[in-house]
Amino acid sequence: MATVNLGRIKPVFRGAFNNSTAYVIDDIVTSGNETFIAIAATQGNATSNGSFWTKLAAKGADGTDVAATLANKEIAFKTNAGALDGIPIGTAGQFLKVNSGATGYEFGTQASAGVLQTVRYGTGTPWTQSMSGTSFTQINNGATDFDVTITPSATSNSILIFGQLNVQMYPNANNYAGSVRVVRSVAGGSTNNTFQAGNAHGSRPRGTFWTATNSAGYEPVTCFSVSDTGHNTTSAITYKLELIAHGNHTVTFNYHNNHGDGSSGYHSQAFSTIMAQELGHTIADA
């Protein structure tokens, strides 16, 4: 029977390329972390010689030794330059966030969008305070200012100031009115008395809200609410109430009670309060 030589019917892996080894067609070798197959019989011709070799598998980019690059407990990320870097672990309660420059990552505390803190001053102690003229006077019972102090945790956080003021103006023969304004003092410094006041208009005093009494001398509670979005500080801020009387009249202000004593409802002892809340965001105008 005749014998037919079919030749090599499958490639043969020959291991790493050796310049002194003789190779035949379909021999496969490795060189430089890549794989080549002989397309012609060869000896002493490098795998880069396209007349004898064809690349079967190209080498990929060299990887990075992550264990050597990162410290223990670091999180790996790719920098803008394309390099591998690591973020050290934060402290308990922190979370991973984008840094303030939006150029990378960092661990930090979570910024709250709600109420971060509330400070309150309230009193039900009755007192009287007489004033006249055309200038504002700090509401004070003779020993204590009617104010509240809060220390913001961030310069951009808004402060909400609100409360209620029970005050009656006397004498009661005529209708009397006054203007109250909320003023701000940072770290015991100078007072900003127009941050929440009406616009300048002629010689009119710039107040935050009106308070008035009727001809009988009775007055309901006055509630107020203002916001401070421009304090730009993390120092202690004191918010106070100042009051200006009706024209040049000398007016006596009775806080928390009617000027008379009795068992009727309008003689009841009232309560006033001022509160400050730090919000974890800036209040936006509508």
> End-to-end distance, in Å?
101 Å
Helix content: under 10%
What series of H and E elements makes up the topology?
A: EEEEEEHEEEEEEEEEEEEEEEEE
Averaged pLDDT = 83
Structural class: mainly beta
Mind explaining what this structure looks like?
The chain has 286 residues and is mostly beta strands. The protein has 2 domains: 12-57, Carbohydrate-binding module superfamily 5/12 (Seminal Fluid Protein  PDC-109 (Domain B), Ribbon), CATH 2.10.10; 115-279, Jelly Rolls. The chain is built from 1 helix and 23 strands. It has one helix spanning 66-69, and strands at 12-16, 22-23, 27-31, 34-38, 42-43, 53-57, 75-78, 84-87, 95-98, 105-108, 115-123, 127-131, 137-138, 147-150, 159-165, 167-170, 176-186, 191-192, 209-213, 222-228, 237-244, 251-255, 272-279. Strands 13, 14, 17, 18, 19 and 21 form a 6-stranded antiparallel β-sheet that branches. Strand 17 (176-186) and strand 18 form a beta hairpin. The radius of gyration is 41 Å and the shape is rod-shaped. The chain starts with 11 loop residues before the first strand and ends in a 7-residue tail after the last strand. The mean pLDDT is 83.
